[in-house]
Design a protein that fits this description.
mainly beta; Immunoglobulin-like; 3-stranded antiparallel sheet; 7 strands; about 15% helix
C-alpha cells in the first residue's frame, strides 16, 4: 500500500504563489497580451524591528503617492494601492511584458503590538517606509501606602 504525503499549513501560500508565477510565465512566453492588463500584483515587503520600532519597507515603484493607502491597528497593517498602466500607442506590439499593473493589497501581521499614535510613512524612489513605535508593555507602578 502506498501512502500519499499531505502537508498542512505553512507552505500553502508559497505553493500557490509558485504555481501562479509558473502559469503567468507560461502565458507571457506564448503571447504577452494573453495576460490580463488589470491583474492584481503583490509588491515585495520587508518587516524588521529594532528595540523601539517596527519598520516596513515596500517596493512599489510606479505607484503615485495619491494612489497609496495605509491602514493599521495594534497588530496588523494593510497597504493597498494601484499602479496605473502606461497608455497604449496605436499599433504597438509587445515583445516582453513583465511589469504588473493594477491594484494590490497586502495585510501584514506585526510581530509585536504597536502604538497607532506613533506611526510615520514616507515614499521615496519607489519605496514605501512605515515606521511604527512599539507599544510599551504594561509597566507595574508601585503606589506607596500612607497613613491617614
Amino acid at each position: 500500500m502506498e501512502y500519499i504525503k499531505i502537508r498542512f499549513g505553512k507552505n500553502l501560500e508559497h505553493m500557490h504563489n509558485r504555481l501562479q508565477k509558473t502559469i503567468d510565465e507560461m502565458f507571457r512566453r506564448i503571447n504577452p497580451m494573453l495576460i490580463l492588463p488589470e491583474q492584481t500584483w503583490r509588491p515585495q515587503m520587508d518587516i524588521y524591528e529594532t528595540s523601539k520600532e517596527i519598520i516596513i519597507i515596500g517596493e512599489i515603484s510606479g505607484v503615485d503617492k495619491e494612489d497609496l493607502e495605509v491602514e493599521l491597528d495594534q497588530n496588523a497593517v494593510k497597504i493597498s494601492g494601484r499602479r496605473q498602466q502606461i497608455p497604449h500607442v496605436p499599433g504597438m506590439r509587445y515583445h516582453l511584458a513583465e511589469i504588473a499593473y493594477g491594484s494590490f493589497e497586502r495585510i501584514l501581521l506585526l510581530p509585536v503590538p504597536i502604538n497607532p499614535e506613533k506611526v510615520t510613512a514616507s515614499y521615496t524612489n519607489g519605496f514605501l517606509k512605515i515606521t511604527m513605535a512599539k507599544k510599551l508593555r504594561d509597566q507595574v507602578h508601585r503606589i506607596p501606602v500612607v497613613d491617614e
